């Protein structure tokens, strides 16, 4: 490394800095940047391509999440995955503009494959923030989105095997018949006594793509898309379409996006908390870790992770150490590399 001494004689230095390496030497990160949860490389590449071609950060996160919807990333995003108790796949999505704090979101969306596109339509063509259920689907059709069956042979098979196994696992409690042994329909138990249940769900049954994009002009956006929790109670909505829970963006501070057990995580608004911590001066890694720690105090074994980025392009991630999650992988694209980079963080 070249060290310049402040003396009257000129500094003679044999090493040289490119503009990029000089930025890193001075403590600045690289902009623009795209970050998303999990090793969804094609989604990262799609978003990065938008920024490289001069598109907006909103366009970038929309295209990135849409890529995952098309590819049915990990079976946890898009059509044909995570059937609910009735065997139906429904979708949740959110998009947020960090410049003006506008948000569009949909939940329990039926028949429409492009959930993130519908979320953006909510933001751009209504004064609302969140549309849900059948009414959201009708809105989407009126906006020109094509109605299609979200069921596939894979989701039908998942549902059939679940029924064959007496509807295990499920997310019912304090009901009869005994949900640990039988399918419904269920009714409330007369007694308020609660039996301790061992959660048997698949740790990969409630993943989400959460994506953040920042450009060189200081614009920030965030988005999410998911098909929710496998075997969920029909009508269940997790953290993904809830602003401040699934994602949050503010161009004066940064952005964050979460993934994992949305029923638990949404109670703590971890994405909002992380952005506020970065606003107060915390670096992204520390902000992510604090947001996870806040949840961990109450739910020590919850399944979840969060990604964070501040306005300088510094980024970080954190995850809770739980069965099936000891290390969290996420993707980054910036000018450090021509291709998306796979990053990881050890859970704590």
From TrEMBL:
Q: Tell me which Gene3D superfamilies the record gives.
A: (Glycosyl)asparaginase (3.60.20.30)
The record ties this protein, via Pfam families, to:
Asparaginase_2
GO term, biological process aspect, one? proteolysis
The keyword Hydrolase is assigned to this record: yes
Q: Where is this site: Cleavage?
A: 207-208
**Keywords assigned:** Autocatalytic cleavage, Hydrolase, Membrane, Protease, Transmembrane, Transmembrane helix
Under PANTHER family, the record lists: L-ASPARAGINASE (PTHR10188), N(4)-(BETA-N-ACETYLGLUCOSAMINYL)-L-ASPARAGINASE (PTHR10188:SF6)
Protein name, UniProt field: N(4)-(Beta-N-acetylglucosaminyl)-L-asparaginase
Which organism encodes this protein? Channa striata
């Amino acid at each position: 490394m070249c060290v310049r001494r402040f003396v009257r004689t000129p500094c003679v230095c044999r090493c040289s800095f490119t503009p990029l390496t000089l930025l890193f030497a001075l403590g600045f990160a690289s902009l623009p940047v795209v970050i998303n949860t999990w090793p969804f490389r094609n989604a990262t590449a799609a978003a990065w391509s938008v920024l490289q071609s001069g598109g907006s950060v909103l366009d970038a996160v929309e295209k990135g999440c849409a890529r995952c919807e098309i590819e049915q990333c990990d079976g946890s995003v898009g059509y044909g995955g995570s059937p609910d108790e009735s065997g139906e796949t429904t979708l949740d999505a959110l998009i947020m503009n960090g410049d003006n704090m506008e948000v569009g979101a949909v939940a329990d969306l039926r028949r429409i494959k492009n959930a993130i596109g519908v979320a953006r339509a909510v933001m751009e063509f209504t004064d609302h923030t969140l549309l849900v259920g059948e009414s959201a689907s009708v809105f989407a059709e009126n906006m020109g989105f094509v109605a299609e069956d979200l069921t596939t042979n894979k989701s039908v098979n998942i549902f059939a095997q679940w029924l064959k196994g007496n509807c295990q696992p499920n997310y019912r409690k304090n009901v009869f018949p005994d949900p640990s042994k039988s399918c419904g329909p269920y009714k409330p138990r007369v007694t308020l006594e609660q039996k301790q249940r061992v959660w048997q769900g698949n740790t990969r049954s409630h993943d989400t793509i959460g994506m953040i994009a920042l450009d060189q002009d200081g614009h920030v956006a965030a988005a999410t898309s998911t098909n929710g929790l496998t075997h969920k109670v029909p009508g269940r909505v997790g953290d993904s379409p809830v602003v401040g829970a699934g994602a949050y963006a503010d161009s004066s501070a940064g952005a964050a996006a979460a993934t994992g057990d949305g029923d638990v995580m949404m109670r703590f608004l971890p994405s909002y908390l992380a952005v506020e911590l970065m606003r107060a001066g915390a670096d992204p890694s520390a902000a992510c870790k604090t947001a996870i720690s806040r949840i961990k105090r109450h739910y020590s074994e919850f399944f979840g992770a969060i990604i964070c980025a501040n306005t300088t392009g510094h980024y970080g991630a954190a995850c809770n150490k739980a069965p099936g999650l000891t290390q969290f992988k996420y993707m980054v694209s910036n000018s450090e590399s021509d291709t998306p980079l796979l990053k990881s963080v050890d859970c704590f």
